[in-house]
Amino acid sequence: MVKEIENQEQESESEPESESEGEDEKLSTEPSKNAIYNSEALLEKIEDIAWPKKIDWIHKLTIDHPQVEKVDVDDDLARELAFYTQALDSTRVAFSKFQKFGVPFLRPPDYYAEMVKSDSHMLKIKDKLLYEKKMMEEMEERRKMRENKKISKQVQHEKLREREKSKKDEIESVKKWRKQRERDGYVKGEKGNNEVFGFEKGDDVFDKVRKKRPGVAPFDRSGGKNKGKGSSKGRERRDSKFGFGGRKALKKQNTAETTNDFRGFRKGGDTGSNNKKRKRF
Amino acid sequence: MGKKRKQTEALEPKAEPSPPPSRPPRTLTGWKDGAVQDPDEGGDNTFFRNKEKVLVTCSRRINYRYRHLMLNLVSLLPHCKKDSKVESKESKGSTLNELVELRSCSSCLFFECRKQKDLYLWMVKSPGGPSIKFLVNAVHTMEELKLTGNHLKGSRPILSFSTNFEESAHWKLVKEMLTQVFGTPKGHRKSKPFHDHVFVFSVVDDHVWFRNYQISVPHNETDKVDKGGLDKMTLIEVGPRFCLNPIKIFGGSFGGPTLYENPFYVSPNQIRALEKKKKASKYATKVKAKTRRKMHEMENALVPDEFADMWKED
């Protein structure tokens, strides 16, 4: 039963949102014939209840605003805009009237009084606005990042091609230079004249470096000087952990202090920083 | 009561030392006819005092959304009195009239909720005046977060009407009622002397649309807007929003002869029933189509073909 009521409430909540006049219109294309319209009695009633004609405007505060064009009801934006302009125009008229009267009608900045909406409610509104703004900013940032990524990819590609090209050009220029020299009358086979550089043939320049030094790891810049002496950080750490130099079993046991110490617990775990799926909306 | 009168008159310095307007005679059943307002034969404008008091109440089993709407209106109308819920069935009788009289109000807004989904609003001038029954649509309460404005509680609103209220007699009556019910009386003790919001009533598509905007305008003095301030004026919506569809206008309060009936009005019950029927009628139409086809076939039976056995031997 309770569920039923809830359902109904949800329905009723969604109904007014969609402004259900559309259905009305379809049904009411032709007005019913026998509807009562007693215009004399209506006017009489107005006479009955109306205030005296001569009263000042300040008592009524009514402003009539001519509706220029017909408003489309189903177009939410156009309709709201029409209401807004009506309100704005009539407020302007009213304010100029007030100014003519010369009575104070604007709230001084130091006049504090109860408002229609409570402060806590206004805080909620503010929070929501801020949140929306933040979301917009984040979206913008993400969009920018995406574009940047695209651009940077392109730039990288361009750079690589450029490098390739410059390399080719240089080789070409060296060849040219050599030919020039030959033509100029240098004797072929003379010393220092006929070397062929590795890069010209296109083979790996680093091959020599690798082969010449037995016992040294490739790309070891120190030339094997460090061998046996120093050790890497990782090695040190592993040594300290797994017992290089003595039995560590007792040290690894928990004590009262360590059990109560939660500092290392779930440090920087999956709190969302690297969870991309969650971050996405 | 007498005490209050003295206070308000002290506020109006121009009042002549003539005796205060005598209180209209009161009968057992309420005010005498037309006695809600001060008689205008007094002639002087300063004598007019708006003593409108609006009773706001609702039927039992009202939806929370509509109840919030009612409370919003209560907060917007400083000249109203809120009463506890009334049993729906009683609304037919004179109990509501009695209640209005008991609270010495001159008009009443009665929110009647039916089936937990349809909201009807009765707008009534109490002793003898007319009463209008509206169907309320498109309700947005002030609690919605997208309505970001705020204004002083009890400041007198500017009432803006679209001119098509003047087009026909019933709209004129509606306008008169709206001005009296929604306008806060000048010098009401709960009202504030500043104007920072505007009510918009607009007739679109034979419905009255209500909006409430906060006015924000740059100003340094209290009686003058800054130069060019009127152009810089902006409005922020405060809410609530609703849309009133007039159904009927009666001559008396909560009853009496019908003066107007909306020819376009279709009750939401009918709409729902129609929708349901449309859904339910799928099978029925299928069956109907089948029988019709059968009938058609029976009526226009095929003529026996004379060439049917032309190529048969013998």
UniProtKB/TrEMBL annotation, chain A:
Residues 7-24 have a biased composition (Acidic residues). Residues 252-261 have a biased composition (Polar residues). Residues 142-208 have a biased composition (Basic and acidic residues). GO terms for biological process: ribosomal large subunit biogenesis; rRNA processing. It is found in: Nucleus, Nucleolus. Keywords: Coiled coil, Nucleus, Ribosome biogenesis. Residues 1-33, 142-281 are annotated as: Disordered. PANTHER family: RRNA PROCESSING PROTEIN EBNA1-BINDING PROTEIN-RELATED, RRNA-PROCESSING PROTEIN EBP2-RELATED. This is Putative rRNA-processing protein EBP2. It comes from Carex littledalei. The lineage of its organism: Eukaryota, Viridiplantae, Streptophyta, Embryophyta, Tracheophyta.
UniProtKB/TrEMBL annotation, chain B:
It holds the Pfam family Brix. It comes from the Eukaryota. It comes from Carex littledalei. Residues 52-255 form the Brix domain. The lineage of its organism: Eukaryota, Viridiplantae, Streptophyta, Embryophyta, Tracheophyta. InterPro entries: Brix, BRX1. This is Ribosome biogenesis protein BRX1-like isoform X1. Belongs to the BRX1 family. Keywords: Nucleus, Ribosome biogenesis. One of its GO terms (cellular component) is nucleolus. One of its GO terms (biological process) is ribosomal large subunit assembly. It is found in: Nucleus, Nucleolus. Transmembrane segments: none annotated. GO terms for molecular function: rRNA binding. Residues 1-44 are annotated as: Disordered.
